[in-house]
Amino acid sequence: MAIGKWPIITLLTDFGTKDHYVASVKGTILKINPGCTLIDITHQVRPHDIEEGAFILANAYSSFPRGTIHLAVVDPEVGSSRKPILLVTENYSFVGPDNGLFTFCLLKEKVKKAVVLTNKKFFHPRVSTTFHGRDIFAPVAGYHSLGRKAKAFGREMKSWVKLPFRKPEMRKGGLAGEIFHVDIFGNLISNIGEEQVFHFTKKRPCVIRIGKASIQGLKESYREVQKGELLALIGSGGYLEISVREGNAQKRLKAKKGDKICLTTESQRSQR
After folding, report:
1. How far is 21 from 27, CA to CA, in rounded Å?
2. Which of 34, 96, 118, 149 could staple 154 via S-S, CB 3.0–4.6 A?
3. 157/115 Cα distance (integer angstroms)
4. Is 121 found in the same domain as 35?
């Protein structure tokens, strides 16, 4: 994969924007390559929540042009034996800690080259044990955007950490999944994908249950219900979501990540 003439580097972290951390990462990159474009995906990942960072990155990375470098840092084990890595796929590059942060991206991307970052020539002269985002990942991303090949940064690796992904299960009562992510609007995003929903329902009327709430059928958009009403739909990421029009489903249902969600059809209800 060739880096473009006008390289793009995205940034995803749990650093927030109150402190100097994000600015320090950007400044380090721009010292190396003032001509690159820096795009923030988010810096509001819940602190230390690798799974949330992985989910957000997976929903954003493919919106960028081929050759984009994605720098992601949600790194609760910074300074430990966990590896700093660079993964190059057929379309993108990913720089960050080897802790599963790139798991969901790599379900769709084929890795062509993977290296452990060991060549200190491309690190900050003084590497902090608490800020690898600035001292290792940022300079590597900067030099990579100038066209440095993956092999220049370290030794090849054959495997990397993968987060477990709990798939929905068929049970007697229907298709059972769980809430996998809660977005800024309080929408409850499940681990039940669009294809699984439609393969299961086969266009039959369905009921979605979460906690004590039951929602009749799937909607295509928020405009199909009244303000404040609960609804279920397939969200922009391709997963079943529970929402409240102009409201907050998490607060309404007092729901959280890991809560169970079940999809049944009218025919299954009648068989009970």
Report:
1. 10
2. 118
3. 5
4. yes
